[in-house]
């Protein structure tokens, strides 16, 4: 049984983007060491055990709590498996700083692995040295004096990869485009005291050109400098700033930085009629329909039939048990509904939550790939997410005017997603509740909460998620999705999630 579990565990890792074990070289002066790594979605994760051994650090691992503490000369660093927080404590004054990673840590073979580029800052502080990951995946340690000697004069003429930046102010945020003629291999970012610091690795910038750019929108001041082979930007941001994302631009080497406004705060809620935000309408969207069958699974199962069955069962549960919430359906029969029309229906009904129900499939049938997924509206970071979004978006081929949809993998999509930043907090909260509830109640494995660019979510101005309830190309999932009992179980798990979210949403709204 244990062997079977391990086999399934490593299969899961492979499916979720991990490559085989590898290593990178850590170079400290004349000494070099091999650090055990895994790669997930092109992000390098390093073994903390291996890192501590290479640098002769004392470490303590608590297997029950799955925590590891690394002891440096003047600092301690604490990491926890499956947890995005790093705790840095100074032995000099007992001051503690907490760093939040944009992704989680992982426990593999009894070792905790952390995403290297996002962990560099607290590690540098603890080490008292600079850490540079070069294009050859060498992790180089340098002292402050070495960095100073290698720092380029900002005004020195030469070959620059970053030629300038553009700032574009939008109603719901600010978009910064960093223009680069070279692929930027990695970056780190940090926000403190109203300053967003982003370091781009292995590229230099034309500082004189950047200094010509006037601040705008949320950006109140811009500083840039070349540090060795890297470029550091410091953006001083206004008080309305909430969150940011750093993304690769479509079809170019440029980097897009989105800065989101705080457009859904206590002041806004108090000034606008508060009833506008009451949790009183849920919109249930059964994917596909009519001439569009959706994906076809084993035995000829049609996605449109499964999604409608789940949607109607979910609606009945809500109507019966949550009396103060109105249920609106984008379709209740086997009819085709344009994607933009689904968003319009949701908006005109004053929806407070939009749930789009779908089924997944693999091109080759039958397939061993199984499990449900919950998606948020953001650019897809993986090939799998992009492929799924393209398949779901292909429904526009059945519509009269496909040209109305702008491509979602470029800057247009990013601006659309910024417009939904007011609802993203609630979309994330619901998706987390939903993923946990479905994992607990269903005999279908979870493949996690993910991000992709779905047209159907763009139009709905409210918290929104898209659920891929399972793989019709997999015999196990298909049997559950086809059966009335299976559809009722999925509907019940979604309903329970809605109940929990409603309580959390109203509590959050009351607190502002």
Terminal CA distance reads 49 Å
Q: How many domain regions?
A: 3
Number of strands: 26
Please give the CATH architecture of the largest domain: 3-Layer(aba) Sandwich
Going across the biggest sheet, name each strand in turn. 9-10-3-2-1-12-11
The rough form would be described as globular
CATH topology of the largest domain: the name is: Aminopeptidase
How large is the count of helical segments? 14
Category from helices, strands and their pairing: alpha+beta
* Share in helix: 25-40%
According to CATH, what is the class of the largest domain? Alpha Beta
Portion in beta strands: 25-35%
Reported for the largest beta sheet, the result is: 7 strands, mixed
Rg from C-alpha positions?
25 Å
Please mark out the parts with pLDDT under 50 across 5 or more consecutive residues, or reply none.
Answer: 1-19, 145-158, 263-273, 402-415
CATH homolog superfamily of the largest domain:
Zn-dependent exopeptidases
Mean pLDDT metric: 78
């Amino acid at each position: 049984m244990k062997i079977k579990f391990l086999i399934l565990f490593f299969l899961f890792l492979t499916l979720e983007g991990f490559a085989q074990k590898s290593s990178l070289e850590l170079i400290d002066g004349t000494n070099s060491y091999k650090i055990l790594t895994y790669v997930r979605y092109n992000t390098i994760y390093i073994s903390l055990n291996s890192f501590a051994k290479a640098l002769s650090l004392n470490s303590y691992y608590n297997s029950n709590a799955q925590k590891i503490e690394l002891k440096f000369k003047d600092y301690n660093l604490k990491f926890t498996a499956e947890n995005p927080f790093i705790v840095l404590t100074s032995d000099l004054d007992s001051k503690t700083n907490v760093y939040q990673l944009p992704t989680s840590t992982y426990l593999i073979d009894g070792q905790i692995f952390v995403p290297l580029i996002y962990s560099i800052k607290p590690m540098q502080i603890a080490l008292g040295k600079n850490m540079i990951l070069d294009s050859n995946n060498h992790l180089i340690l340098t002292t402050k004096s070495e960095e100073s000697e290698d720092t380029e004069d900002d005004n020195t003429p030469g070959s620059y990869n970053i030629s300038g930046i553009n700032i574009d102010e939008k109603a719901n945020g600010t978009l910064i485009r960093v223009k680069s003629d070279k692929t930027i291999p990695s970056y780190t970012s940090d926000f403190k005291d109203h300053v967003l610091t982003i370091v781009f690795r292995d590229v230099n910038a034309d500082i004189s050109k950047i200094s010509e750019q006037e601040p705008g929108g949320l950006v109140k001041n811009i500083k840039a400098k070349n540090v060795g082979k890297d470029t550091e930007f410091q953006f001083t941001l206004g008080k309305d700033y909430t969150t940011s994302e750093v993304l690769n631009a479509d079809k170019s080497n440029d980097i897009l930085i989105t800065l989101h406004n705080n457009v859904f705060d206590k002041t806004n809620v108090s000034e606008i009629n508060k009833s506008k935000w009451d949790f009183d309408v849920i919109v249930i969207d059964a994917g596909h329909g009519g001439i569009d069958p959706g994906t076809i699974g084993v035995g000829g199962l049609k996605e449109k039939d499964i999604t409608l069955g789940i949607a109607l069962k979910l609606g009945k549960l809500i109507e019966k048990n949550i009396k103060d919430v109105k249920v609106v359906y984008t379709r209740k029969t086997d009819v085709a509904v344009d994607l933009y029309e689904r968003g319009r229906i949701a908006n005109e009904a004053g929806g407070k939550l939009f749930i789009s129900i779908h089924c997944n499939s693999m091109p080759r049938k039958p397939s061993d790939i199984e499990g449900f997924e919950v998606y948020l509206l953001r650019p897809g970071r993986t090939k799998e997410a992009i492929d799924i979004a393209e398949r779901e978006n292909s429904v526009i081929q059945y519509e009269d005017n496909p040209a109305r949809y702008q491509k979602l993998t470029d800057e247009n999509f990013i601006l659309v997603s910024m417009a939904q930043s007011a609802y993203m907090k609630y979309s994330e909260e619901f998706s987390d509740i939903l993923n946990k509830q479905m994992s607990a109640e269903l005999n279908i494995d979870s493949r996690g909460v993910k991000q992709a660019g779905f047209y159907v979510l763009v139009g709905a101005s409210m918290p929104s998620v898209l659920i891929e309830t399972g793989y019709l190309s997999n015999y196990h999932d298909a049997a559950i999705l086809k059966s009335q009992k299976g559809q009722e179980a999925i509907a019940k798990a979604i309903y329970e999630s809605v109940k929990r979210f409603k309580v959390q949403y109203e509590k959050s709204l009351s607190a502002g």
